């Protein structure tokens, strides 16, 4: 029997550890394929956790994926559990080696299409939503009330409209006018207003907020989209509660405006669009020890296939790239692109340092329970989502993504904030891997939830769209990755995700604020 | 005719300016009561804005409320409009004079009651809500779905329950575990769980979030309240989506749990409770030139009356106290209390400095349009809400308020975040003054909205509860303040506010995050 057919998984020949594929009891034996003497486990070890396959002295590197994930802080014997008690992140000295190892472009694949919506200005949509964009928390209730009324009384008359969403949040005021945080929020709100999946929208503000509607419209050059058949000119529709005369009047006026927009917004139908116009946002949330060995590498295969088809795959979550950036700088298409990535890391070190916080305080308690010990281990697992092609660009949070291929966007690791940025940047499908479980949804964009392990897939069957855990059960990463690529195309073409079937996605719009709130 | 019966309002004999009570045309004359030569206005000047009543040289102080609000940056002629173009904040050197001017306690008033709910442990409530407390954004949708179902199908059977509220937010993860931001969020969530207006609650988390349910329950010593007739012992009800098996199952289980809690939660009735058990949270939002001369001083009178009755009035919004703290340190009951206030100011200077932001970038564009030029002017107007009694204590954000009388809580100026902190600290009525307009609501606590001017009161009649603008029309501050005190008692006794009548308050729960989001 091969080692990987047993309860243990060796990820790379250079590794001095194996992974428990299930809960392992003390005294179970790791039998190497090369005929070396069997090693007995010395403790009960949870699924996804690490076990030493050789002696590791204090200060010696601990390797997973063939990469250093940290250093032994106590002597580790063969068969011993490796985790926070005997493994520390230490300080990895990184060699960026900019653009030294740019992968050859994948063999281009042409002619493959999905069924999407073509907007009058040429953009490709995967869903057709109408939005109410709330500039500030003070207009959130009004926006929600209007959406409730439209859903209850009006929407069924427009079968080609997938839904109406109130993009409400907790910010929009008490920030520095024209400051970095204000611009970031404007990019998010503007990015959603301009998102291909939004067929028409109304902006609703209070009136006196720092995040003025006029600033938003100007800064983001917003225009109204009037359905596929109309030119996109003219100012967007803007209401403020203070000018309109309060809650009730503004709800009524918002509903009236949306009513006027709906007939045009409904005049769409799906048509064949090249797969190259898919922009996939890749996210992992509630990671576990399997994230980096099943779902994320499978998503990496799907990303590579999308890139081969001329499409775009976005890797976000800068704090989770942290420690693994030297793997991406080598793949950067130019040294400038690589330097942008390194600059992000410095921004984050500086930013978290202001708060006395360590960027490598990550992984979370849930991650640790799932078997991830160090930020490096988590990062190496996290960047697997981006696949293996050249890094074509690095974008600011919520910045419009203008490169095709594999790109990085600066987002926090926090799922709703991260995905909000990628969608604002243009992602029209989201792929969300999770080991601990998630019920994330993200209107107006479908979010495919990918379980890293079969027990999760079964336990949260109402929420999980895809089981990458079958890799542990024997399927190859390549095979599962191809299947996931097909799932992305199906969902882009209108197949509803589990979160869409449950109506999720009204609460997860979460613009990342870098502060301060005054 | 007296000056204050004309279009102009002189606030204090030492002032070198008057306020326009309405839009004033160029050439209208300011006729002083003392027979001095009339002064003609030199421009069209908006309501609430300032006009010089004497020549002011560059660098000379500009006085309003008898206090320095800044210094002339250009020469100002009599009759000239005073605003950002000729007035700067400069740097006021403050003399704290700790506890040098502690006001005599107001004449105590006894025997006055309101009709409230008495909880089994003795706490006094003004409303009777059931809550779903969401630890993290990842459980927000589940919490909202459960509330929707309870409102639709169940709640009408329990007429003594005022409502069910999902306390959802955008945070709860990607913060430093056990760090300052984590503790602050725990104080907010714990403060709401322990709020007298919450008769029963369920905590709903995802499972893997940094803000673990177990941390919350332990840190905040949470117990379940089982109606008025039951002892408050036993652990609170906690669900996680990951353990419960996903969205649908967790919604169902949450609804089941709330169903079990409702019969006991319904067993309450209003009874006479001393007014001393009212805790008023004072907030101003969307301030204008009238905030500091009508609504805020009237609220100050109401605060003083509450204090005379042994009750508590909370002044928040530290950045809006900034610049006026030397008026409060004199009134501090001990130098230690005064020093706590000064320490807050230093924390804020340090905090905003980290971001390269000035704490005095306040007032907002809306404030400026309304006639407020400098932070000092705004602060002097803002602290008027706290009245004139001794400062009894200074509390952290969302910290339980344990002093009676007039106290300060450290909150940001941002309305939803500020009120969330005061309610978490125990405020059972909120008084919210506004000049530009607001539709703020704050479940489970009623929020009285007080217009600073009559045009606003009339324009947003569906949202405004009280018109302090009648002070401009001739009523005295004292008279209007007494009327507001009576309104507070009526609302505490069950009279519905405008925002309650409209169902507002589901979106405004907004825990203040000091960052960083990782
Ligand atoms: Ca993650
Ligand atoms: Ca994370
Ligand atoms: Ca994440
Ligand atoms: Ca304010
Ligand atoms: Ca405020």
Automatic annotation (TrEMBL), chains A, B:
<feature type="domain" description="SAF">
    <location>
        <begin position="15"/>
        <end position="88"/>
    </location>
</feature>
<dbReference type="InterPro" id="IPR048332">
    <property type="entry name" value="GD_AH_C"/>
</dbReference>
<dbReference type="Pfam" id="PF20629">
    <property type="entry name" value="GD_AH_C"/>
</dbReference>
<dbReference type="InterPro" id="IPR013974">
    <property type="entry name" value="SAF"/>
</dbReference>
<dbReference type="InterPro" id="IPR007392">
    <property type="entry name" value="GD_AH_second"/>
</dbReference>
<comment type="similarity">
    <text>Belongs to the UxaA family.</text>
</comment>
<dbReference type="Pfam" id="PF08666">
    <property type="entry name" value="SAF"/>
</dbReference>
<dbReference type="InterPro" id="IPR052172">
    <property type="entry name" value="UxaA_altronate/galactarate_dh"/>
</dbReference>
<dbReference type="GO" id="GO:0008867">
    <property type="term" value="F:galactarate dehydratase activity"/>
</dbReference>
<protein>
    <submittedName>
        <fullName>D-galactarate dehydratase</fullName>
        <ecNumber>4.2.1.42</ecNumber>
    </submittedName>
</protein>
<dbReference type="GO" id="GO:0019698">
    <property type="term" value="P:D-galacturonate catabolic process"/>
</dbReference>
<keyword id="KW-0456">Lyase</keyword>
<dbReference type="InterPro" id="IPR044144">
    <property type="entry name" value="SAF_UxaA/GarD"/>
</dbReference>
<dbReference type="Pfam" id="PF04295">
    <property type="entry name" value="GD_AH_second"/>
</dbReference>
